[in-house]
Batch of 2 targets.
Target 1
Amino acid sequence: MFYNQKFGILREVVRCLGGSLAIALITLVCFCLKLQLPTAILLYLTVIVLLSLWGTFISAAVVSLLAGWGLVYFFAPPILSFKIEDPINAVAVFAFLTISFIITHLVSRVRQLMDEKLQRTEAYLAEAQQISHTGSFGWNVPTGEIIWSAETFRIFQYVPTLRPTVDLVLQRVHPEDVDLVKQKIESVSRAAKDWHFEHRLLMPDGQVKHLYVESRAVRDRSGRLEFVGAIMDITERKLAGEALRKAQANLAHVARLTTVGELSASIAHEVTQPIAAIVMNANTCLRWLNSDPPDLEQAREATSRIIRDGNRGAEVIGRIRGLLKKSPPSKVRLNMNEVIQETIALARMDLHGAALQTDFPEGLPQVTADRVQLQQVLLNLTVNAIDAMRSVTDRPRVLRLFIRDYEGREILVAVQDTGIGLSSTQKDQLFETFYTTKPDGLGMGLSICRSIVESHGGRLWAESNGDHGTTFKFTVPIAGGGAA
């Protein structure tokens, strides 16, 4: 502060001396050429206007008084005297002094307003740079002169009184990025083109900052290469990006856990059915063996069913193991009538009093599909239909399954119930993962079913019946040629 005050006083003294010297030279020239008072006044006013633009009110006022003294002494008769005999000359001198002070005051006021506006602009710019963590710089390549804004000093954590240099920059650069920055400085100093790059700073307290530097090449009036650019502290953005990547990694981990949950649910759902069938057939076999006399033929049939259901459970496990190994589904040519009949045999025990109606036309073309996966879809849709009718007491509970040739290109399979039906909102969300209409449901069955159907090249959807209940339909493409 004290240094600035001393420097300001010194500048005022220099301006006063310069203005006084100019007045003295004009006086000498005008006096030697014997010019009249009006000419001297005009030349004096020119000097005062220029001094007002260059200096301050004080220096211009001092020079104005000095010029008024010169007018009276050298140009107002009697010459070389402070007396003024002609009243017109007195009015002229007075007018000169008045005009000089008015010009000085007006110019000083305009400069003051311009300085205030400039200061406000600089303050706004500095505040905006601080808010956005963006500093500015200028670099004159031939002279090596570097200019920093206040925010640039703050980013590098240097005091503003230091003279910015390339060495000061390199002192703050992270040791692992020093070679990169040196190469960039050397390359851009030889090429007059725009440039940008990112690097890190290592501050004295151990803090690491991430910077993004962008610069534009310009030429000054003498044609020398300069770079004008911005330095952005992107540390917060980098940290946020790292946090986002970490969150994405955690989300991917959750997704893997969800997949495991879906597989576990699929295993539990599919293996439960053949196990229940095995237990039921085993009990039936025991009854036939314990009868007097034992009914070996019926026991043999029950044992065959046990073997069949055991094989089906093994097939389910095999398909799931194949899925874990990313093995392709075991797709073969199938008769959809047979696939549905086998599924009905598994679901019949769970009808809970619902009537079963089927409509399976003969002679339909075969499809190429994975038997176990199609049975998984059918069984899931059938069990859902039965569950939808559990609370129905005012009308017959009917489960209807039918097959149709769909536009000559696909086989359409439909599972229809007379249950409570679905709202429009439920239909929109029905196939979303974890969405369920059951109090104890996992919300994964229909999502898995749709994935299976789509992997076979078909589609799965739901329609509301005209009276009661819902119909689930899915299609499977017909195999190339061949009929059932």
Target 2
Amino acid sequence: MNSTYKAELLQKRRWRIRKKVVGTAMRPRLSVKFSGQNIYAQAINDELGLTLVFLGTLDPELRKQKLGANIAGATALATAFVTKAKAVGITAVVFDRSGALYHGKVKAFADTARAGGLVF
């Protein structure tokens, strides 16, 4: 399989998920993206097109911990994201896995966010 074909399949999965997952003011969309080296998470209100909370492993506080795009990094980022989201007043979200399969680091992020108190 060539890389353009794999990228096309990933984009199709993203679109298929985004048809069903929509963030509102009451339940923003928690989008998680894993790149090769970093992890990014954001809470998005799709009605207004606003990002309410953003956090990534490139944040100065998390950068000191030298987190990678692995299960340990996903767990640490989820814990930090939950505290930041709760400070803004977000308690319930809808989870957007951005086309990634729900296992491994994506599952670790989701389980840690649920354990921290986010409802989804």
